[in-house]
Amino acid sequence: MPDLLLDLNYPKFQEELFDLEKIEQTAFLKTCKKLKQMTWSMVYKDSGLKWEEITSKSKGHDKVFSIRFSNKYRATVMRDEGFIVFISIHTDHDSAYK
Model pTM? Predict the structure, then answer.
């Protein structure tokens, strides 16, 4: 039974999402649909999402992660109880880790 929720409310994230080309917005929405059908353990194991901790941005219990939503883009996210909180979008995979 899926148990996660999506939080898309960060203003910076929203700006970046609205600035994406339509094809990338569609890829993001497909990823959201996929996430809504998953459990947390499925998210952690999914090879397409490539859920990875960004240790350079993580502080204590506030861990920041990277997920892939297209071949070109990654998003930085945090887990807040049952929510995946989307923080930012990165066109350059390496920039997600800086």
Answer: 0.87
